[in-house]
Inverse folding.
């Protein structure tokens, strides 16, 4: 196969080997894997939780600055190049790939969870708790998540489309590391990116499978079980493999566009069948509350809440920051690949502001409807067996509460989860394979299929090793090494854009000086020519100025007198 010759052996084999070892260890030493992951989670959260919070806050500031800075007009590609995808298609592809499956899984359950089991320190009546719950959800799914993607995507898009580098994480760090990205250090960077991508996508697959299994149970199709979850992983991975085989312009594009339309229909139905006026008012109010409190919510580490605060942070905020960071190489490469021709400002606004608006609408409708149902009928959105929120079934419980919408909305929800994962797995496999093939934008089909299958195996291994807890732990752990890469990418893109901006300014100044010189020269020449015409008008019929000739001072002038001396003639003695 033609693409096989591009295989980067120093990247492909180490990354695949490490991931396969984890899968084997998790399957054949499940209890030991669970114990190790639990220990690592407690150690990482305890030691680095503050680091994740500070880092993500810095990325938000960085992304906003990039969008508003003097670099905004620089094109991610040739100066005269047009974008590869129209704006609606571009948006649907980056959004569905970036976090679509998580929105479906947490759309109802997260605001409801924050309401029923509030964040430590949050108190008040039901209205206050509901408002705090929606705002906390906005923090987890809004600017912060997409700011991480801006850092990775912008650095990669500039390196790939502006500088002509291969599609690989290492080249985004070239301004910082120089030629060292071509050796073992570059291989390590790409290996970390591949492992992070595989585990990030596997985490999403695991969450989606848990929800699909309980959705089928809700429809009385089959009883949820570990065997069912493993079977669903195999089936969905098979669908992802078919999508992988169809390529970027067909499978991912069609699936993402179709799924975004289906998601829009389900959103509209919940808005219309639910408490419409309440949901619209809630969205407007929550948006303002979020912006009024976003700084405090961003930097809150619950430092004075002891073990209770640390446990909450690890289950929610730190898990999300780790999840988004682990997805950064995958989403960054993908949105960079589809963003050729966009300016830096367009890229930042498209990647940061628009998904934020859509996420707030989504959670205000789904989360708001779930909160309204629980506030008006206490206990109706809780698990009857435990009296707590069941994240796997909350969406289906909400659908059941809507008039004439339970069954078919549940089916639509299952389809959304499946297709969102297929899209993520498809694009994730594509990105991983580009990294494993030295940045080849058209890697061979066999290796794309290999990574799609491997993602399914990792998801199955994580479920066997502890279910949701293991999925969260994997996301947090894998994000730690790649966070260092992200910092390097941020430094690199600032360095590159600053250099290019200085060159642009110098070129503009040179052009302005040249234009001014030409203008002044033309003006002076025109003025002098006009004055010569006034002093010495041309003879009748003459086509050009008559230039006065030097007269011989000895020649008789008018009246027989000697002519005037030349101005530059030096008088003789006695003159």
């Amino acid at each position: 196969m033609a693409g096989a010759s591009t295989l980067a052996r120093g990247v492909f084999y180490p990354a695949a080997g490490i991931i396969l070892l984890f899968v084997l260890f998790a399957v054949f030493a499940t209890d030991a894997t669970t114990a190790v992951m639990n220990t690592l989670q407690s150690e990482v959260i305890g030691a680095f939780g503050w680091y994740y919070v500070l880092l993500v806050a810095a990325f938000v500031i960085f992304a906003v600055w990039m969008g508003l800075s003097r670099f905004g007009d620089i094109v991610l590609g040739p100066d005269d190049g047009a974008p590869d995808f129209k704006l609606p298609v571009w948006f649907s592809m980056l959004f569905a790939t970036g976090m679509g499956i998580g929105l479906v899984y947490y759309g109802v359950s997260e605001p409801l969870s924050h309401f029923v089991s509030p964040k430590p320190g949050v108190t008040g009546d039901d209205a206050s708790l509901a408002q705090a719950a929606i705002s906390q959800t906005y923090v987890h799914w809004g600017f912060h998540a997409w700011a991480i993607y801006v850092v990775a995507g912008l650095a990669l898009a500039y390196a790939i489309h502006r500088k002509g580098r291969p599609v690989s994480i290492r080249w985004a760090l070239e301004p910082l590391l120089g030629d060292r990205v071509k050796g073992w250090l570059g291989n390590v960077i790409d290996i970390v990116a591949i492992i992070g991508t595989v585990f990030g996508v596997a985490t999403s697959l695991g969450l989606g499978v848990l929800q699909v299994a309980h959705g089928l149970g809700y429809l009385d199709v089959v009883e949820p079980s570990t065997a069912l979850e493993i079977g669903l992983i195999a089936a969905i991975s098979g669908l992802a493999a078919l999508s992988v085989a169809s390529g970027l312009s067909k499978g991912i594009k069609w699936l993402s566009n179709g799924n975004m339309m289906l998601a829009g229909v389900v959103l509209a139905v919940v808005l219309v069948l639910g408490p419409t006026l309440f949901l619209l008012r809630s969205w407007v109010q929550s948006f303002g509350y979020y912006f009024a409190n976003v700084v405090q919510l961003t930097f809150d580490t619950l430092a004075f809440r002891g073990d209770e605060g640390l446990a909450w942070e690890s289950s929610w905020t730190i898990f999300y920051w780790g999840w988004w960071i682990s997805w950064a190489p995958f989403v960054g490469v993908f949105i960079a690949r589809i963003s050729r021709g966009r300016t830096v400002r367009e890229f930042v606004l498209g990647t940061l502001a628009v998904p934020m608006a859509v996420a707030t609408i989504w959670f205000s409708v789904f989360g708001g409807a779930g909160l309204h149902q629980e506030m008006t009928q206490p206990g109706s959105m809780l698990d009857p067996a435990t009296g707590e929120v069941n994240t796997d079934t909350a969406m289906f419980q909400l659908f059941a509460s809507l008039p004439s919408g339970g069954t078919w909305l549940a089916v639509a929800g299952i389809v959304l989860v499946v297709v969102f994962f297929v899209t993520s797995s498809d694009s994730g496999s594509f990105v991983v394979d580009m990294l494993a093939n030295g940045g080849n934008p058209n890697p061979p089909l066999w290796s794309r299929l290999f990574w799609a299958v491997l993602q399914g195996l990792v998801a199955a291994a994580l479920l066997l090793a502890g279910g949701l807890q293991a999925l969260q732990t994997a996301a947090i752990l894998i994000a730690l090494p790649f966070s260092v890469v992200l910092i390097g990418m941020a430094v690199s893109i600032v360095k590159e854009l600053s250099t290019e901006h200085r060159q642009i300014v110098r070129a503009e100044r040179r052009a302005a000086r040249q234009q001014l010189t030409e203008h002044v020269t033309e003006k002076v020449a025109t003025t002098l020519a006009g004055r010569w015409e006034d002093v010495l008008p041309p003879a009748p019929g003459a086509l050009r100025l008559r230039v006065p000739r030097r007269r011989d001072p000895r020649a008789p002038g008018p009246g027989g007198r000697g002519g005037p001396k030349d101005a530059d003639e030096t008088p003789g003695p006695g003159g």
In short: Residues 74 and 343 are 5 Å apart (CA to CA).
